[in-house]
Every structure is written in structure tokens, then in C-alpha cells.
Model the fold of this input.
Amino acid sequence: MPKRVLIRGARLVDPGAEFDGVTDVLVEDELVAAVGDGLAAPSGAEVIEGDGLVLAPGLVDLHAHFREPGFEHKETVETGSRAAAAGGYTAVCAMPNTDPVADNLSVILEVRALADKAGLCDVFPAGAITKGLAGEALAEIGEMAEAGVKLFTDDGHSVQSSRVMRLALEYGKAFDIIICQHAQDEGLTEGWQMHEGHYSAMLGLVGYPAEAEEITAAREIALARLTGGRLHLTHLSAAGSVAAVRAGKAKGVRVTADVTPHHLALLDADLVDYDTNLKMNPPLRTEEHRAALRSGLADGTIDVVATDHAPHAPEEKEVEFDQSPTGTTGLETALAVVLTELVEPGLLPLSDAVARLSTVPASILGLEEHGGPVLAGRPANLVVFDPAAAWTVGERGYQSMGRNSAFHGRALHGRVLHSLLRGTFTVRDGEPTR
Ligand SMILES: [Zn+2]
Done:
């Protein structure tokens, strides 16, 4: 007998089908079997009463660090996948700055095998742009692209050479892949600890000016125009970068961009307590920059919310601020941060939030099975969440091995209740199923 789940009377928010309304969804084995009002529960079906809940396509993260191979004391593909499922994700693009670096097909295949074994979330490993992330010789991009790798990045580093970026974008155009840049002019950020401005002067910490990102973002957009390649600028933090993306898009340049929940929610002023969980690259910036990121997300200049989930071992973060590695976890809090900071105050409609967290990143990566539309015959990759449920970050621990959440102890609204990967619960009633 097929395995059936009926989700009854939830608000289905499905940007891919331009649908937003209360209806029923029947899942049968791996697929959505029916969508419509007043669906009867077939015998043996599990029924989820969706009154007050939101049903959406499973979330898709363009940017997460799963740390394996090489840094299993921070996170593994299995624990990262579990954190993703807990956050409502059914697909994640894993960053290549592992050890060894994913600059060749064998590391890509290893990460895919680990993800298949965990079976909690579809993992799409990204490849490196350059060998060893050294910024010089191109990685084995063709071999990885032919094996289905869609996104290439040296994230953790920023490719400094315009010549190398031009070559990468030309390759990218030939293979129809995305060249993703962490934009940072390293000549302007030596010894940095936080955003350069009033608070860095007050706290006596070395600054990382917004211009370090803006200069590189503008350069890459110019190179994307020159080459016709597809560029993605990840974790934008600066107003000038948003303006450059907006202008680039207006001229028809093939550029997309993402922003993290922490850059949308937090400020450099929050660093006055020297909390190492707030130390990230790029750094948290000022109200002016945050406002530009929020309006860029709202008007579609910024296409995607991506987590930059960056787990570290507790002992690595429990050090003096200047000794701390950069990064915050993000997979378990992204949806709630977007709901609390943007949707509730009326800055972003819920359907746009789902689009930026699921539909659009799935389409950028060309993931046919993710991001909706939620229609009969489609794979049942779904999330059910309670948009009003209040919780405190960390109160029940974390599924990630990383405890370094920038939102630890904060009150948020929006709780993931169920995640389904091809019709199988990976999270049920807020708890991972395995
Ligand atoms: Zn980065």
C-alpha cells in the first residue's frame, strides 16, 4: 500500500505556481498526488491538520559550509544535513573550502556519497574556481561541470585577480555554470576584525570597509558584462554592492545575488559586547547598509536569502574576539529570522520570502525537483511551518554541531514543524526523524 500523507487546510505558499491560499495537499510515496480543496483522506493516510500553518516548497540554500571532508570537528555532511532539515531545507549547496578542497571531481563525489548516506537533505556540492582556493590556476571546472556541478566559488577566499575571474567567467559561459564570488578586495582588509566605521574606532578593532566589497562587486559585474558569463555575488553586505547589482541587471548583465539573514537583521553596533558569534565575513555593517540590503531584497535586486551556515567547534569560538574564526550558523534560524525581521513588520510579503528562500535559489541552480511548483506528479519536497510560534534560539539546543549562532538567545517567530524529502519526513513535529 502506498504511504500517504494528507496536509489539510494549510496556507499553501507556492510562488512557482503563483499560488497563495488555503487548500489541501495529498502526498503519496515520493510525489505530490493531488492539490485541491476538500480532498478526502484515503484509508491509511496520515492527516496533518494545517489550520494556521504554512505549507511551502522545501527551502533551498545556495551557501552552506558542511566542513566535511577535513573539518569533522566542526560539522559533518550528516549533521549539517540534519540542521538543514530542521530549518525546513530540502536542498543545500555545500561550499568547497573543505580539506581537501573540492577543486576536482573526487571530492565532489565523496560529498555526494556522504549526503546520500545521510539521506536528510539533497546536497549539491559546489566546486572551487581555483586549485586549492589559491586564486591562481583554474580548478578542474570542466570535469566537475560535466558531472553536474552548477556553482563554482572560492568562498572563504575571494579571487583577487581580474584575469583569473575573466577566465573563470569565460569557462562558466562555455559550460553554462555559475561563477560565485565572495567579493573582498583583500588589499583593504588586512588584519580586519569588523566593519570600518564609528564602532570599529570606538571598540579599537581594525576595520573592513564596505568599499572592499563594493570595489570587487563592481569589478565582477564589469567582467560578467565583458564575458557574458553568469555571475553570482554571495552574502552582500554593502549598499554600494546592491546599487551595482541593480545597475548591472538594468543593463542586462547576467548577475544574481544573495544576502544572509544576519546581514538583514543585525548591525555593527551589536558588537559592543565583543560576542564572537557576531564576527563574520563580510562583517555586520551599519543601519544605512542594512536598509539597502532590505530594500534590495524587497525589490528583487537581491534574488536570494542564503545562510552562509558556518559552524565552528565551541572551543574555537570561546576565545578573545581577535582570535576567533569568522562565521555564524544559520540553517536552523534563517526562516524564523526572515519571518520575524521582514515579513512580520511588513517589509516583505510571505510569498516573496518563500520565493527568495526556495523557488529562486532552486531556479538559479537549475534544480528541477526543488523550489516547487507544488503540483500533482511533482516530487514532494515540502516544509510545513507555524509562522506565529514563538521560540528562543538555542533553548532546545541545535542539530548542527556548531553552537555559534549569531541569534543565540533571541526570541523569534516561526517554527518548522515538518520537513518532507521526496515524501519522507526528515522532521516531524519539530524533531528530526533520525
Ligand atoms: Zn564567504
About this structure: Residues 155-156, 182, 235, 281 surround zinc ion (CB under 6 Å). Residues 210-227 form the longest helix (18 residues). The domain at 4-55+376-432 is CATH 2.30.40.10 (Urease, subunit C; domain 1). The chain has two domains: 4-55+376-432, 58-365.
